[in-house]
User: Fold this.
Amino acid sequence: MTVKQISVFLENKPGQLKEFAKLLDDNQINMHAMSLADAEDFGILRIIVDDSYKTACVLKDEGYVFSITKVLAVEIPDRPGSLVKVLDILGQNGVNLEYTYAFITRKVDLAYMIFRVPDNEKAIEVLSKNGIKLICQDALSDLFAD
Assistant:
């Protein structure tokens, strides 16, 4: 019950993100979620896309340095306190959260969080046991279908 996240290293200079986004656009790849963290000389762009295999092929052909990581996509009601509930469940069960970012879809009243944790299986078990819905790769693509 994980989704594939692609982390791409980009030079920290003007226009790099635009070039990257254009590359995806030119190859008909849709970004569903994105997070960009900066360092002194480079940025780490984390993306969830509609076709991770195609994206990896394009990035390899273009010489990008990237990695693919399995992360959790968690469905959360879009109202105050919902994230706190999920974080409390994880914390009470000793699941550390390395980083997180959010994305939205056309579904009303729902938000989605990407969680990177050291132990996906433990986090999946804990969240599922507590009634928290996780989204798999195929279901994620369905969220963005017209």
About this structure: The first strand starts at residue 3 and ends at 11. The first helix runs from residue 16 to 26. The chain has a mean pLDDT of 92.
